[in-house]
């Protein structure tokens, strides 16, 4: 059933997947109905074609009676990968950057990002800080977001796409919570027709206009690493760039 569920999630036919994974349509049908048990190698071939996240792949292996194929280590124990995350975060200064897991819980952040999160109420600032909750909650940064309706709509669309792609545990509950904030979404036709949606944030030192980019690890083999993304906010205009540098100088 797991194979069928993910095949339908990816909107792929049995014929399409069987050809791509180099097996017969009958064999794939038997795997989907439980009449045939796939080998670990076959599981990986099918999962490759369906772009199944590593955490879900382990469930495929367990359902077939095998041990999980992909390890899951704590973030602190990722060795060189953890050092790479820290190097990226530090290298992004004075731009705010944060490493998050699949449910947007903060794993690490640079000084610029921590400065933005400083002052959150206890219920939002207690570890692990959820970046989306901290940004959109009425008691968080939401009152400072100049384009809150537009930004909230953009975030909700992004989380829905992420949930469709990953089916990650806890992400649906987070989405439902975020959808409960505010008074609805701004339709895309009412939003500014920029190339990307900026985060327009008011601060005591002046307004910031920020664009973001996401960085992920290529070809991860660990579940934790597979779910890590580094979100970096870059200045959308010269004034924001000057203000970020000035704030970094003040912290230094």
UniProtKB/TrEMBL annotation:
GO terms for molecular function: DNA binding. Pfam families: HTH_3, MLTR_LBD. Residues 3-57 form the HTH cro/C1-type domain. Coiled coil: none annotated. It comes from the Bacteria. This is XRE family transcriptional regulator. It comes from Nocardioides euryhalodurans.
């Amino acid at each position: 059933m797991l194979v069928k569920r993910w095949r339908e999630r990816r909107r792929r036919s049995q014929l399409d997947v069987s050809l791509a994974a180099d097996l017969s349509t009958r064999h794939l049908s038997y795997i989907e109905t439980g009449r045939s048990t796939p080998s670990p190698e076959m599981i990986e071939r099918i999962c490759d074609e369906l772009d199944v996240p590593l955490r879900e792949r382990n469930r495929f292996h367990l359902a077939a009676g095998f041990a999980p194929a992909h390890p899951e280590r704590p973030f602190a124990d990722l060795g060189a990968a953890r050092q790479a995350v820290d190097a990226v975060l530090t290298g992004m200064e004075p731009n705010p950057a944060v490493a998050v897991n699949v449910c947007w819980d903060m794993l690490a952040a640079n000084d610029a990002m921590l400065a933005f999160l400083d002052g959150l109420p206890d219920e939002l600032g207690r570890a692990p800080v959820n970046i989306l909750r901290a940004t959109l909650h009425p008691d968080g940064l939401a009152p400072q977001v100049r384009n809150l309706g537009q930004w909230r709509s953009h975030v909700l669309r992004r989380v829905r796409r992420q949930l469709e792609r990953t089916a990650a545990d806890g992400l649906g509950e987070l989405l439902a919570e975020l959808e409960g904030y505010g008074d609805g979404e701004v339709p895309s036709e009412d939003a500014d027709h920029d190339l990307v949606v900026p985060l327009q944030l008011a601060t005591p030192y002046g307004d910031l206009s920020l664009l973001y980019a996401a960085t992920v690890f290529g070809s991860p083999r660990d579940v934790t690493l597979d779910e890590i993304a580094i979100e970096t906010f870059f200045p959308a205009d010269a004034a924001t760039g000057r203000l970020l540098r000035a704030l970094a100088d003040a912290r230094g």
